[in-house]
Amino acid sequence: MDALISPEGSLEILSRSEVAQLRNSGEGGLYELWRQCSLAVLNAGAESDDVRGILEKYRDFSITIVQQERGMELSLENAPESAFVDGKMIRGIREQLFSVVRDLLYVHDDIVSSGGFDLGSSEGTTNAVFHILRNARTFRADELPNMVVCWGGHAISREEYDYSKAVGYHLGLRQFDICTGCGAGAMKGPMKGAALGHAKQRIRTGRYLGITEPTIIAAESPNPIVNELVIMPDMEKRLEAFVRLAHALVVFPGGVGTAEEILYVLGILLNPDNREMKLPLIFTGPESSEPYFRKLDEFIGATLGKEAQDRYEVVLDDPARVAGVVHAGLKEVQRYRADKDDAYFFNWLLSIDHEFQETFEATHETMAALELHRDQPTHRLAVQLRRAFSGIVAGNVREAGVRLVEEQGPFELRGEPALIGLLDQLLRDFVEQRRMRLSDAAAYVPCYRIV
Q: Residues 89-93: contacts with CB within 8 Å, 24+ apart?
């Protein structure tokens, strides 16, 4: 479908240089990135993570800026018809479409190209994350802690999805807002449940914040409930945004992407500087997910130790109890932040080593070079394991990673035999449980090889 779309409330005016960046497909241009992110938004609610298939299906889709005296509009050609009702674009999709423009331009001009942020330091990177989130207007300075970040896989069973929705419902009844990775499965369920809980409480300002990044958005198109969308520049800044915004973290069943997120937050919490940090972390799912969490808990215990296990609580088949644990935890968070004179809307006190912030690009060379052995500080091992899982996510669903595996074969993972054996077994469990991909889950071909 072809359409001419006007913005609402922001981005009515762009400079000539900004327009040129979005039109330019050459080196330094943003057009192809903008096109793919926009297509993902227009394809909101899609149940497929086959990036190649999505791009091929809409290969004739194009988007351009029409600059006018009174402002700007977006011209779309061959856009997915599902984004329209009676010839008019769905309002939520239109809002997200302009969120893409906002974030891509801001990150390119004010973060990457301005020279005003030292992205080679921990403090500078955190400052950049703060500014991106502030520009997207995600902060509510006058609100007490109530943001619950929910992680989990998009390739989950219907039972697990319904359970995540039930948890979201109980969180919504307690007037908590929800933040997820914005996609399907365990990212959609909590938002959908919370929306019902908010409706029952007559809350009309409920927040369903979706945080994504350009290389994953096509595989995890924003679900229709997201009413605030933020596109961070890379996975590492996306993960930092989650933990800086979170007042509590609830983890549902997932696959390698969820394992990556878990290792990220546990690695940070294992930093001695964060020993007293109050950040409730709950693993939860229906009773049928017990083997999944048991295997994950065993892996964490064998690699990161009991200290890491002590940082989370496992709650099975009890949505109301999960919400109760979160409610009690948020009271502790409020007291801790107040005592430390820290902001409620952004966790400045959380210490994050720069290793956790450095962008990891999965290639055959970087994956083979990972230091997968236990003869190193535990938090540094968490960094290495997190990158291993991140690389497998790339090989599974990110277009660049999928292409590398097709051209050069599977990524190779090597290291300490005992540790590699533990990693191999966990990945085999994920494959057996069909947690690697949503598309063709039964015919999954591993993008990695254990050496």
A: 89/3, 89/5, 90/224, 92/44, 92/224, 92/226, 92/227, 93/41, 93/42, 93/44
144-451, CATH topology level: Rossmann fold (3.40.50)
Segments making up each domain of the chain, as ranges: 3-105, 144-451
Question: Which residues 6+ apart lie within 8 Å of 159 measured at CB?
Answer: 286, 288
The Cα 94–Cα 97 span in angstroms is 5
pLDDT at residue 48 in the model: 59
**356: pLDDT confidence band, cut at 50, 70 and 90?**
very high
The arithmetic mean of pLDDT across residues 348-371, rounded, is 96
User: 98, 36 in Cβ contact below 8 A?
Assistant: no
For the stretch 80-102, pLDDT in tens is 988 999 999 999 999 999 899 88
What would the pLDDT profile of 125-148 be if each residue is shown by its tens digit? 999 999 999 999 999 998 999 999
Architecture per CATH, domain 3-105, reads as 2-Layer Sandwich (3.30)
Asked whether the predicted pLDDT for residue 168 surpasses 80, the reply is yes
Instruction: Report the share of the chain in percent with pLDDT over 70.
Output: 92
Contacts of 176 (CB under 8 A, 6+ apart): 146, 147, 148, 194, 323, 326, 330
pTM: 0.92
Mean pLDDT in residue range 270-292: 95
